[in-house]
C-alpha cells in the first residue's frame, strides 16, 4: 500500500499559495515612475494585475505642476502606463474622502499649533483603508504600491513585518508606520528591495513614458508649496494675527497667523534682535509665537498619541525597551527607550541624546534598532515634548 506524501505548498513571489496567473493584484498607480514599474514587474511575472488611480483633489491649480501627485496629468500618465503594459485600469473619485480625512485634518492641525504630515494620514485612511477595501471587492489577493519599504513574512505564519527599504536614500518607512498588521498582511511593496536608479532603468526597459518623470512632492495638494494659502482658504476665520514673544517675556514683533510657523523654524521670523532665534512653541489659544535660542529646542522626552504598534511584544507591557526613533523624515533613527505610560494612556520615548526641532503633530517612528534595514515597530503622533514643558515653566 502506497502512502501518499503531503504536498508541499508552493508560494509565489508575493508569498501567496497560488500560481501568479491565478493571483489578482491591484496596483495603486499614482502616475509616477515607481508605481508604474511596480505594476510592470508584477505583470512581467504573470500576475493578474489591475491598476487603480485615485483622483484625490481638484487638480485645477496643480494639473501641470511638476511634482504634483494624483491630479490631472498624473491620471493621464497612469492610464498611459497601463495601456503600455496591457492591463486594465480604473480611476476612482476619492475627492470627498480625501478632503475630509486628509485636507481638513491638515488644516485643523496647523490651527492647533501642530505640524501635521498629510502623507501619513493619506496612507492610513485613503490608500490602506478605503483603497484596500476596494481591492478586496475586486477579488484581489493583494494590494501593491510603489513605496520604498520592505515587508517579509514573520516566522511561524504570524503575519508580516515592515522594514526600511534597501535604498536608504529612498526609504519611506517613516510615512508608513501607521499601517496595521491586518493591512500589512494584504500589502506588497515590489520596489522595497531595489535602488531608485534601478527603477528608472526598468522603466526605460519597459518602455514607460514616465521613466524620467520627476518624483512627487510630499504635500501633493499644496500648489507651489504655499500651504498657508490652502489653510487660509479652508479656515479663513481662524487665521489670527498675534505677537512674537521671547521665552524671557520680551515682545519682539507681530505675525499674521501661527500657520506660518513651525517648531524649530529660524528663517522668516523677520526679527531684528541681533541674535539667532528659533520657534520654540506655538500657542494657538493666544495666537502667540514663542521664540528662543537654539538650546531651548533640545528635547529628550516625547509623548506619543494615537500609537500604532507592529512589534511582537504587547506595547502595554514595555518598560524602558531599547529602540531607535525617527522624529522627522529627513533624520536617521536615533537610540532611545520606549515605555508605555498606563496613567496617561500613551507611549513615552526617552531619547539617549536630545534632539532639536521636535514638533507636535509630526510623527515619531519606532524601529527595532538604528540599522539601515531595521524593522519598523510602529509609531505615533508627537503630543508633548520636554522642551515645551521647560519653556512653559
From TrEMBL:
Q: Which residues bind ATP?
A: 28-35, 54, 146
Domain tRNA-specific 2-thiouridylase MnmA-like central span(s) in chain numbering: 239-292
A Pfam family of this chain = tRNA_Me_trans_M
Chain ranges of the tRNA-specific 2-thiouridylase MnmA-like C-terminal domain: 301-382
Q: Where in the cell is it found?
A: Cytoplasm
E.C. code? 2.8.1.13
Q: Which SUPFAM superfamilies match?
A: Adenine nucleotide alpha hydrolases-like
Is Secreted one of the keywords UniProt gives this record? Answer: no
For site (Interaction with tRNA), what residue positions does UniProt give? 147, 362
Task: Identify the keywords attached in UniProt to this record, alphabetized.
Answer: ATP-binding, Cytoplasm, Disulfide bond, Nucleotide-binding, RNA-binding, Transferase, tRNA processing, tRNA-binding
Q: Which reaction does it catalyse?
A: S-sulfanyl-L-cysteinyl-[protein] + uridine(34) in tRNA + AH2 + ATP = 2-thiouridine(34) in tRNA + L-cysteinyl-[protein] + A + AMP + diphosphate + H(+)
The primary location reported for this protein is cytoplasm
Q: Which CDD domains match?
A: MnmA_TRMU-like (cd01998)
State what protein this is by name.
Answer: tRNA-specific 2-thiouridylase MnmA
Amino acid at each position: 500500500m502506497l502512502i501518499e506524501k503531503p504536498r508541499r505548498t508552493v508560494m509565489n513571489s508575493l508569498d501567496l499559495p497560488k500560481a501568479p496567473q491565478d493571483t489578482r493584484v491591484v496596483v495603486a498607480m499614482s502616475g509616477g515612475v515607481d508605481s508604474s514599474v511596480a505594476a510592470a514587474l508584477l505583470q512581467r511575472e504573470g500576475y493578474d494585475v489591475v491598476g487603480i488611480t485615485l483622483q484625490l483633489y481638484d487638480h485645477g491649480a496643480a494639473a501641470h505642476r511638476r511634482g504634483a501627485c494624483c491630479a490631472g496629468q498624473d491620471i493621464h500618465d497612469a492610464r498611459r502606463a497601463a495601456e503600455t503594459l496591457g492591463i486594465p485600469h480604473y480611476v476612482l473619485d476619492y475627492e470627498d474622502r480625501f478632503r475630509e480625512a486628509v485636507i481638513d485634518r491638515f488644516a485643523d492641525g496647523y490651527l492647533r499649533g501642530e505640524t501635521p504630515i498629510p502623507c501619513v494620514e493619506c496612507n492610513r485612511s485613503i490608500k490602506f483603508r478605503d483603497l484596500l477595501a476596494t481591492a478586496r471587492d475586486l477579488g484581489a489577493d493583494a494590494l501593491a504600491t510603489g513605496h520604498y519599504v520592505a515587508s517579509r513574512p514573520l516566522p511561524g505564519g504570524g503575519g508580516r513585518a515592515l522594514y526600511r527599504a534597501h535604498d536608504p536614500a529612498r526609504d519611506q518607512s517613516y510615512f508608513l508606520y501607521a499601517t496595521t498588521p491586518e493591512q500589512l498582511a494584504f500589502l506588497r511593496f515590489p520596489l522595497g528591495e531595489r535602488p531608485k536608479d534601478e527603477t528608472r532603468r526598468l522603466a526605460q526597459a519597459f518602455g514607460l513614458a514616465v521613466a524620467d518623470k520627476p518624483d512627487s512632492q510630499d504635500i501633493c495638494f499644496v500648489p507651489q508649496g504655499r500651504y498657508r494659502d490652502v489653510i487660509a482658504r479652508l479656515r479663513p476665520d481662524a487665521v489670527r494675527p498675534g505677537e512674537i514673544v521671547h521665552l524671557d517675556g520680551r515682545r519682539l514683533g507681530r505675525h499674521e497667523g501661527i500657520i506660518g510657523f513651525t517648531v524649530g523654524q529660524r528663517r522668516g521670523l523677520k526679527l531684528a534682535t541681533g541674535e539667532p532665534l528659533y520657534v520654540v512653541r506655538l500657542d494657538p489659544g493666544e495666537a502667540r509665537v514663542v521664540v528662543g535660542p537654539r538650546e531651548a529646542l533640545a528635547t529628550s522626552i516625547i509623548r506619543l498619541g494615537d500609537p500604532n504598534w507592529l512589534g511582537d511584544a504587547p506595547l502595554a507591557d514595555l518598560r524602558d525597551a531599547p529602540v531607535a526613533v525617527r522624529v522627522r523624515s529627513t533624520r536617521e533613527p536615533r537610540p532611545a527607550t520606549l515605555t508605555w505610560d498606563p496613567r496617561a494612556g500613551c507611549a513615552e520615548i526617552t531619547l539617549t541624546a536630545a534632539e532639536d526641532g521636535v514638533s507636535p503633530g509630526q510623527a515619531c517612528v519606532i524601529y527595532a534598532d538604528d540599522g539601515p534595514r531595521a524593522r519598523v515597530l510602529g509609531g505615533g503622533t508627537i503630543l508633548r515634548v520636554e522642551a515645551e514643558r521647560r519653556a512653559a515653566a
